[in-house]
Amino acid sequence: MELELDDPGYYVLASNVFAALGKWDQVKSIRKSIVARGLKKEPGRSWIEMGNKVFAFGSAEKFSEHYQEIRNFLDELAALMSKEGYAANVQYALHDIEEDEKRDWLCGHSERLAIAFGLLKTDPGTPLQVMKNLRVCRDCHTWTKFTSKLMKREILVRDANRFHLFRDGSCSCGDYW
After folding, report:
1. For residues 139 and 120, what is the distance between their CA atoms, to the nearest angstrom?
2. b/e code 105-143 from CB counts within 10 Å (16+ = b)
3. Do 114 and 57 meet the contact criterion of CB atoms below 8 Å apart?
4. Where in the numbering of this chain does the DYW domain appear (predicted)?
5. What pTM was estimated for this model as a whole?
6. What are residue 170's DSSP bridge partners?
7. Fewer CB within 10 A of the terminal residue: the chain, N end or C end?
8. What is the Cα–Cα distance from 16 to 156, expressed in whole angstroms?
9. Mind listing the pLDDT tens digit for each residue in 87-116?
């Protein structure tokens, strides 16, 4: 952070390390310094193209006209996934909030919103292609593997690091990214 004072990425990385360790005072201090320096963290954004139209989603974005339909679908999908053994890994919800809130926060990740929208608005069996401006978190990676298997869909996600092709419950990256 001392070498790159104007790059918010280093502050976010340090904040995430402290959050993973449960050191919320340090997280709060770093987040305050981001604001004090006038820096902005790049928000997570994902988009999916369908029918020559691009649909964009932001993390925890609730102003989409399709938000309630997507959330209802995500709740239904969560019940199915739970029966198949999926449990949200809340260690990737790097906020000092209750466990239930952490699960809800993970459900609001932009790639999940885009994938759910694609599942709702395309015919069964249609492959999905989603782009994301940041790296996919490990929980969303696991969630997408389960989704590809349960919904019998091929889901291609291009994140900031690589392409992930999810098919039948596995990913082309071999769970390394």
Report:
1. 21
2. bbbbbbbbbbbbbbbebeeeeeebbbbbebebbebbbbb
3. yes
4. 85-177
5. 0.81
6. 167
7. N
8. 27
9. 877 565 555 546 565 456 456 789 999 999
